Fold this sequence. Notes:
alpha/beta, Rossmann fold, Molybdenum Cofactor Biosythetic Enzyme, Chain A, 15-stranded mixed beta sheet, three-stranded antiparallel beta sheet, 15 helices, 20% strand, binds adenosine-5'-diphosphate
Amino acid sequence: xxxxxxxxxxxxxxxxxxxxxxxxxxxxxxxxxxxxxxxxxxxxxxxxxxxxxxxxxxxxxxxxxxxxxxxxxxxxxxxxxxxxxxxxxxxxxxxxxxxxxxxxxxxxxxxxxxxxxxxxxxxxxxxxxxxxxxxxxxxxxxxxxxxxxxxxxxxxxxxxxxxxxxxxxxxxxxxxxxxxxxxxxxxxxxxxxxxxxxxxxxxxxxxxxxxxxxxxxxxxxxxxxxxxxxxxxxxxxxxxxxxxxxxxxxxxxxxxxxxxxxxxxxxxxxxxxxxxxxxxxxxxxxxxxxxxxxxxxxxxxxxxxxxxxxxxxxxxxxxxxxxxxxxxxxxxxxxxxxxxxxxxxxxxxxxxxxxxxxxxxxxxxxxxxxxxxxxxxxxxxxxxxxxxxxxxxxxxxxxxxxxxxxxxxxxxxxxxxxxxx
Length: 421
Ligand code: ADP
């Protein structure tokens, strides 16, 4: 392993893993800290996905240190602490305490803060974080239910959370390239700063920053900060030019689709799949609650579809979702569907299904929870943001594509299988 990362949530981890995979590193994403002797195969980058974003700082520190210990024991040469590109943190802030703990554990004297992700319109200028055209504190993030962000100055946000002295490397320096940035780091060290916010408004900036932090044991930021790191390993001759081609080996076996997302995009994908002739079974939460539809029945139906890939979906139009919520309660309606799909996923695996598409963020969380893979090897991207993955550490590996509701083109459920060929 060359690069190890600690991500504070699951979808953020996937984002980073995809970035590293696209930049040519064989990348594995784990779900939590894996067992000590877990075999990561030929992975060059490993992203440990925690669920620590909104935990109290002391808990987030403990979880992050456990992840660091595992990464170090597995040979990571450089570590990224990945948080959200909107710097989501609670009022008590745990990005600072986690950074302090990682700095101490790695025995380093300087790290950076750079949540910029220009491709997603997150930029940092004069130390202020922008979301699109707005300052973070003017963006909808100020109303986030768990982590409302009312300050945009990363220097101020960080200074309130860390014991380290906080500095800034401005964009006027960053545009002059890696050498100028390295000089600014040397100046920061002389001033006794332990962490510097670094401006970045373009991918070019991120690549220059990446080059300048080649020797840093610890880097903190959003997924964007990973953009320039693989090239450092290439310059050192540790990473081949060629990229990840050929390393991804999906298991043979039949496929299935489980959809719990009610988003417009997913509903469109379902319509197109049905029109193209995929056999489909609609899962009605009220029928499930009343015992008129059981997991066993759904499985019998799905496993009898030998001609084509079966699609099981609870996805419904907004008025039907409202009706189900009215009858069952909002939380219970979601819960019933998630549990049903999660159980169906394990049943499909038992029935020999080895390739599974899951649509919906919460739905994917429930299915991954039930299938409980220790880690996922990141494979080719089907559509932006949605890769095929293969479970690691399982006797019977499965190919999984976990799709956020809104992601993917209308023919996603049809074309995804081509990517496996
Ligand atoms: P997305 O990524 O589109 O937000 P999620 O899976 O995160 O999709 O969220 C969809 C939620 O809606 C899940 O909790 C799911 O259980 C619930 N749900 C799915 N189908 C129905 C339905 N027919 N009625 C009520 N709730 C539903």
